[in-house]
């Protein structure tokens, strides 16, 4: 297997496919805490790092598997208790990250 990175080419139209014109087809994110779908506002993006840990993606542009949680103590608590963020990222979230998130 070649370790060469393949650049994925989006099909013509990308996200603006036939569905784009349908009302209500707004791109949403699901909070791993309350599971509510929402737009990007008010959400924190967490990405899985190459070393297997997780990090807060403050730019929202980091590549890799990402998950979203509301910037809300209740949602953070739910995500932590249910380990839904761990599951979403297929990794164990470090205690330090939770501490950082609940600031
Ligand atoms: Zn939430």
What name does the CATH topology carry? Hypothetical Cytosolic Protein, Chain: A
Number of strands: 5
Largest sheet: 3 strands, antiparallel
What's the tally of helices?
Answer: 3
| Count of the domains | 1
The geometry reads as globular
Provide the residue-averaged pLDDT.
Answer: 82
- Evaluate the radius of gyration: 16 Å
Give a written overview of the molecule.
The chain is an alpha+beta fold. It has a single domain (28-101), classed as YlxR-like (Hypothetical Cytosolic Protein, Chain: A, 2-Layer Sandwich), CATH 3.30.1230. It is 22% helix and 18% strand. The protein has three helices and five strands; from the N terminus they run βββββααα. The chain has helices at residues 73-82, 84-89, 95-101; strands spanning 29-30, 37-38, 43-48, 54-57, 66-70. The strands form two sheets. A three-stranded antiparallel beta sheet has the order 4-3-5. Strands 1-2 form a two-stranded antiparallel ribbon. The longest helix has 10 residues, at 73-82. Bound molecules: zinc ion. Residues 31, 33-34, 36, 70, 72, 75 line the site of zinc ion.
């Amino acid at each position: 297997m070649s370790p060469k990175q393949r650049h994925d080419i989006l099909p013509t139209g990308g996200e603006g496919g036939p569905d784009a014109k349908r009302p209500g087809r707004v791109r949403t994110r699901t909070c791993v805490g309350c599971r509510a779908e929402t737009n990007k506002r008010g959400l924190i993006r967490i990405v899985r790092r190459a070393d297997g840990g997780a990090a807060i993606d403050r730019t929202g542009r980091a590549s890799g598997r990402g998950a979203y949680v509301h910037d809300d103590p209740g949602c953070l608590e739910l995500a932590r208790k249910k380990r839904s963020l761990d599951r979403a990222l297929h990794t164990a979230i470090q205690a330090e990250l939770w501490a950082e998130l609940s600031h």
